[in-house]
Design goal:
This protein is mainly alpha-helical. It has five helices and three strands. The protein folds into two domains: 3-55, no CATH class; 77-122, no CATH class. It is 52% helix and 12% strand. Strands 1-2-3 form a three-stranded antiparallel beta sheet. It is rod-shaped and about 105 Å long.
Length: 138
């Protein structure tokens, strides 16, 4: 028998009717308080979820940024370009001396949080590199 049915079935002629009614009402109020807390938590969680979805970088957004990367770099201040490079690049490997093609940079290792595996692009013409990238939603 649920709590509301227990309250409804109380016999008002019972000598302990008043105390039983108070006890059952307190239990019912406790349930309502817990229900209100859960509803508030659900509303808070839904609000947080909406904010996350609005701020979330989608694969389409990332693709648009990459396609227009040169345009972004053209309008960025030098300090912002430096910070962006620090966020994206793990390390740069260089040759001790210039190679036959006249290049110093051997490879660039990126640290991109949107890419599950390491991404390494070689700038050495003698070593072709094929990169396959898997984007992951976090």
């Amino acid at each position: 028998m649920n709590l509301i049915q227990q309250i409804d079935s109380l016999n008002f002629e019972d000598p302990h009717f008043q105390q039983k009614s108070i006890d059952l009402d307190m239990r019912l109020n406790t349930i309502y308080d817990k229900l209100a807390d859960v509803e508030m938590l659900i509303e808070t969680s839904e609000s947080k979820r909406e904010v996350i979805l609005k701020d979330k970088m989608t694969a389409d957004n990332i693709y648009k940024i990459l396609v227009n990367f040169a345009s972004f770099m053209d309008v960025m201040e030098d300090i912002d370009k430096k910070r962006l490079c620090q966020m994206l690049i793990e390390k740069v490997e260089i040759y001790d001396d210039k190679n036959k093609a006249g290049r110093w940079v051997k490879a660039i290792h990126f640290k991109l949080p949107i890419i599950e595996e390491d991404l390494e692009i070689s700038l050495d013409n003698s070593t072709p590199v094929e990169a396959v990238v898997k984007l992951v939603r976090k």
